[in-house]
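Standup notes
- HV: blocked on the assembly model, inputs below
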Amino acid sequence: MDENGTDGWNIVVCVKQVPDAADVSIDPDTGRLNRSDAEAVMNDPDYNSVEAALELREQVGGTVTALCMGPPNAEEVLAEAVAMGADDGVLMTDRAFGGSDTWPTSLALASGAAELDADVVLAGEETTDSSTGQVPPGIAAHNEWAQLTYVEELEPDPENDRLIARRDIEGGYERVAADLPVSVAMSYGENVPRTAGLHRKIYAETEFDPEEWSAEKLGIEDEVGLAVSPTQVGGMDTAEPVPREQETVDSADELADRIAEVL
Amino acid sequence: MAAVGEPDVDLDAHTDVWVFIEQHDGEVAAVSWELLGKGRDLADQKGEDLVALVLGEDLEESGIPDEAIDRGADRVLVADDPVFAPYRADAYGQQFRHLVEQRKPDIVLIGGTHTGRDFAGRVAVPTHAGLTADTTELEITPDQYEMRRPAFGGDALATIICPNHRPQMSTVRPGVFDEPSRGDGDGAIEQVEVVVEENDTKSEVLEREVGDVADITDAEVIVAGGMGVEGEFGPLERLAELLDAELAGTRDAVEAGWIDPARQVGQTGKTVRPKLYVAVGISGAIQHVEGMDDSETVIAINNDPNAPIFENADYGIVGDCDEVLPQLIEALERQEVAA
Ligand SMILES: Cc1cc2nc3c(=O)[nH]c(=O)nc-3n(C[C@H](O)[C@H](O)[C@H](O)COP(=O)(O)OP(=O)(O)OC[C@H]3O[C@@H](n4cnc5c(N)ncnc54)[C@H](O)[C@@H]3O)c2cc1C
Ligand SMILES: Cc1cc2nc3c(=O)[nH]c(=O)nc-3n(C[C@H](O)[C@H](O)[C@H](O)COP(=O)(O)OP(=O)(O)OC[C@H]3O[C@@H](n4cnc5c(N)ncnc54)[C@H](O)[C@@H]3O)c2cc1C
């Protein structure tokens, strides 16, 4: 029983749409990164959070709702989460969100999670595009909730309205108990995400249609977007590949000689 | 919900460079000293103070505040209370935020460790500060302060600026800057008021297991293994012994349980800059290469001639590591005898 007296937990899982990392190219004329060629996919570490959310639901009951802030076509990643087993999905989409850095992005997700009356909001360790890892602690900070990051394993403790996590820390691990509601970032690769079942997949592709929320609906239209973002991307350089000899040697003896030269 | 920050931040009211000194059980994370070195340069350029912050319990006995002075801090702010041991995001965030609001630093540097990345947002969000993640370059230009960081798995380097908000915070990748040596400083140590009550915290550490934390960031020689090693790290250990090297691995090798997570190299691991990096059974994914790209010489052993690691290597050998490694070890042993 959660604090609302209903059975199970309201579990929200944040999934982001990102350009496929394998597809991001560099425009030869401008030297700028070309993201428009790349196929839009679900951020790889988010599969781990969806899996963790589904496992949590199996343990404590309740519902899993996938939440995404992004352009209209980002509903595809919600459909993917629903295909894996999420009960529902909500797309926060609005021009007002454009240009948001992690401050408003985490505010928007925090507001969405609060609107969904979340007990637990799960996210990935970081994204494959801008990879700040700042959004999950940001959600906790905006809502003044507890947080658990770099999580390897979750142990729900519904009797005490707490979630216990084994976290990866430098040189070892710790087990931390956090009061609900809590924002969780799963460590990338810690579990094996399930593949979508056929029926669920068909449902997600043909029938599922996420609810769409605007910034106004959440009452945050003046607190999102470029204007309130403290950081700005002031420029982007393509990282020059480090020049390497790229010489192939034929024998281990030759390799040993090279090593001797270097050291 | 935290309040929206002031739209008109008084930029001039913010001065000084702050560095967070991360310590657990009296052991300081190496990146904190690296940041003190970089922070010293920035503070000198600005003509302002370098301030170190230490949170924890029994800090005086630990000698850490004195060491911060000896490594360049003009002032050390110490928050000493059992509520800060062991580390928790909510307690650290609340105290740090209070100090930022009260004293208004201009620049704040926090190590990009799990701890630093865990609590930095708990300061930046309520103060509406800019927070740049995992920076590798910090520069004061005539116009602005620029924080640079890898993005898109290291394919690009983004310059992040923070024109209208203060402080300008960043987490910084460990192993990027040099650690300043310990001199004889004459800065001041100040005990600050502790504003966190145990009852306010929303989390409890039930158990904590920490062994020796390996530090590979300063290694001169590194022998690293990936999935191609298939769990057989014995030959790599022998090679490391011969070359007086530290062992390291890819994220996948860490996840397979073959090597200690503190020895992971790459985007979500450590940045290393050795003279020699030997990559064994490593494909050369961009997220791995990002962490070892500054190595002077790279050697790759891989049985796939098309593995991307060869493009990032000076000398490569195409072959099965089960065969190549014993031969290489033997050849090096012969050299050693001859020398
Ligand atoms: C090159 C570049 C560099 C940038 N650097 C910075 C910077 O240093 N500081 C800064 O404040 N902003 C920065 N930004 C802006 C930042 O990328 C955006 O705010 C972004 O929307 C969220 O950050 P992230 O992708 O790093 O999220 P992360 O914090 O890495 O994401 C962690 C998890 O949060 C969830 N999540 C994140 N975004 C969404 C979403 N839109 N919908 C659903 N779930 C989500 C996912 O579960 C994800 O796995 C940068 C942008 C670019 C293009
Ligand atoms: C957000 C994010 C962050 C990441 N952070 C990191 C990071 O910090 N560090 C990191 O390393 N990775 C990171 N990764 C993972 C990265 O993308 C790769 O999956 C990983 O580096 C691959 O590890 P590997 O080279 O050991 O394994 P594989 O890619 O499986 O490569 C194994 C190689 O071994 C070769 N091989 C096989 N058998 C033999 C043999 N008998 N002899 C010789 N060679 C053999 C194969 O040809 C292959 O090239 C991250 C990924 C994401 C999405």
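- HV (later): unblocked. The radius of gyration of chain A is 21 Å. Residues 9-262 of chain A form a domain with the Rossmann fold fold (CATH 3.40.50.620).
- Next: hand off to the docking folks.
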